[in-house]
Amino acid sequence: MTTSPSPDPRLIATGNNVRSYAQSWGRRVRHGQLGVLPVVLGLIVIAVVFQTANPNFLTPLNLTNLTLQVAATGTISVGIFLVLLLGEVDLSVGSISGVCAAVLGVLVVNQGFGTAAAILTAVAVGIAIGLFQSLFIARLGVPAFVVTLAGLIAWQGLQLYILGGQGTINLPTGGITELTSTFLSPAVWWSLVAAIIVINLAVQLNERRQRRNAGLPARSLVQIALRQTLLISILAAAGIVLSQDRGVPLALVIFTGFVVIVGIVMTRTRYGQSVYAVGGNSEAARRAGMKVQLIRTSVFVIAGMFAAIGGILAASRLFAVSQSSGSGDVLLNAIAAVVIGGTSLFGGRGTAYSALLGTLVIGSISNGMDLLGLNSSIKLMITGGVLLAAVTLDTLARRGRQA
Amino acid sequence: MVAATLEAVGISKRYEAVRALDDAHFAAYPGSVVALVGDNGAGKSTLVKAISGAAPAGEGVILFEGQPVSMRQPADATSLGIATVFQDLALCDNLDVVANLYLGRARTRGIGRLIGWRDETAMEIHANELLTSLAVSIPSVRTPVGSLSGGQRQSVAIARALLASPKLVILDEPTAALGVSQTRQVLDLVTRLKDNGLAVVLISHNLGDVFSVADRIEVLRLGKNNGSFITKETTPADVVAAITGATDDKIAQYLASAERKHNAPAGGPERNPQ
Ligand SMILES: Nc1ncnc2c1ncn2[C@@H]1O[C@H](COP(=O)(O)OP(=O)(O)OP(=O)(O)O)[C@@H](O)[C@H]1O
Ligand SMILES: [Mg+2]
């Protein structure tokens, strides 16, 4: 009873050096555990193709524009990620973002609200709408597809109602618009990077120490060093490139901040695991004593919140709220992004980073084609093709996993 | 006689047109194994779900340690100390072994408690210990349960039931997917649980297994109790007869012959209907 578990002889051991990590990684890829690999490769291909076609693509100015373009939809897709984890879909997030933007505009321009109060109210509206819809979904068991489809239509109506005769509300510069026109100075950015690296390293080393003390397999120092190097490279590259223009956009920090926070909550906390459990097997979760209704409710509420924040960011970037805010391709891009990023539509599988990576894929395709002056007809067809390719790849990978 | 850990009386449950349980009764005693047997569709799993709160019964009284309790949801049963291995295992295939063992009760520590930060190290240590003590061979406790073999999954489900130090353990066909030595392990485990004073309910179609560990055997047939046996005082043939309803036929025979006797008083010496 006290003997430590002897490793199963069939378990393929991973040595503590770079070569065997590469081997074990290659093995995982061959067995269909692709993770974020396809989407990262996709981004590289996109970058090469557009840079070849138009040398302005990878310039600091264009990359800054790209991040500003994707921040709003990307934030909405963070909520969609959670909904997809449950194996559900939320079709109302585009409309919710429009309603909340309209509320924001009316409060700021017509009612003279301060920036913070207007933002908080708009976010509260998003949360309330999410809660309202989730009552039907989680309590009454009406399919989310239908409830949120009704929401898609109804909230758009509410948006038109709120905007009334005005049609378009122009936001004054300063206040709300600063969300997307503020850029971090190099000093601020590099301090932020230093803080992230230090915290991350401390957490990883602490975890490694705990696990080694407990006699559990732990990450080797080589592995930790590799991960830190990768993280530093990404953050440094972003800082160096974007600082050549106006600096790292605050909107990008907000969006990626949400992705990271949601990622941590989902992988490390009881709440996050309960969402994965409900998405994986909700009956098992229920029998294990989880409050399944509450968990489902919370996810739709969070999706409403992120939709509101996305709507605010979009209004901020466009300096205006109009009848078309939140309509058009906002919803479809938000869903497509998460799926392209590798989150399964069937629930229970995926990481928050799929929202970030998928949003970058969709955003850069759209941005690149604008640069080339391509018609939006071509843009739509290509985006559809990429989505189809991503889902096909995921399906084939899953088949590899089962075989 | 010792007080029953759990006693269920007059349990009825219907699913639309089916009377899955009809006035069934059932009891489990500390330090004792009771086997619940019956043909497919007899209502065994339905009874288990009623006792464990997974699917509450429509009618009936459940007493836990002599007190009437209401089993409205699974948490009611677990908080009393009832642990169940469901026939369908109720595992989340997308989560790893540790997460499944601690499903719904992940450990936290210190200030992490405030935000529900999971204490993975503690859970992984304990998971390894538990699985080793059950002689479960799983390559890594970080493997998603969906990629384990059927027997390994069953072992994980059993291990999960034991994690909460229950007073009553209900095992719904725990050995259905297990190999010879794993079945032996589970039966040994059942005996060990009983020796530790737990009440154990074992559902199995394998009468060999039932006779090797059970103290009592309760038979369900078409949603009703159809016989209660002390293992030592009965034979597999009697139990089989109760399961298949051969006893019904005997009663029918008896009634028929009694009627014959009544109608034909001048008849010759009767054969004993038993
Ligand atoms: N969710 C349900 N909906 C409708 N009918 C059900 C449901 N669950 C069980 N039943 C019916 O109730 C009866 C008893 O089923 P139960 O699962 O309890 O049988 P069992 O004794 O466990 O059989 P087995 O040995 O095959 O596991 C069956 O006739 C079954 O069809
Ligand atoms: Mg059954």
UniProtKB/TrEMBL annotation, chain A:
Subcellular location: Cell membrane
InterPro entries noted in UniProt: ABC_transp_permease
A cellular component term, taken from the record's GO annotations: plasma membrane
Transmembrane helix as UniProt keyword: yes
Keyword terms of this UniProt record: Cell inner membrane, Cell membrane, Membrane, Sugar transport, Transmembrane, Transmembrane helix, Transport
Transmembrane segments: 34-54, 66-86, 93-110, 116-137, 144-163, 183-203, 224-242, 248-266, 294-318, 330-348, 380-397
Any single Pfam family the record assigns to this protein: BPD_transp_2
Domain of life: Bacteria
GO molecular function, one term: transmembrane transporter activity
Membrane topology category: Multi-pass membrane protein
Function noted in UniProt: Part of the binding-protein-dependent transport system for D-xylose. Probably responsible for the translocation of the substrate across the membrane.
Protein name according to UniProt: Xylose transport system permease protein XylH
Organism this protein belongs to: Acrocarpospora macrocephala
Classification lineage: Bacteria, Bacillati, Actinomycetota, Actinomycetes, Streptosporangiales
UniProtKB/TrEMBL annotation, chain B:
Keywords of the record: ATP-binding, Nucleotide-binding
Residues of the ABC transporter domain: 6-247
Lineage: superkingdom: Bacteria
SUPFAM superfamilies: P-loop containing nucleoside triphosphate hydrolases
Zinc is among the record's keywords: no
UniProt entry tagged with the keyword tRNA-binding: no
An MF annotation (GO) of this entry: ATP binding
UniProt xrefs under CDD domains: ABC_Carb_Monos_I
Record-given protein name: ABC transporter ATP-binding protein
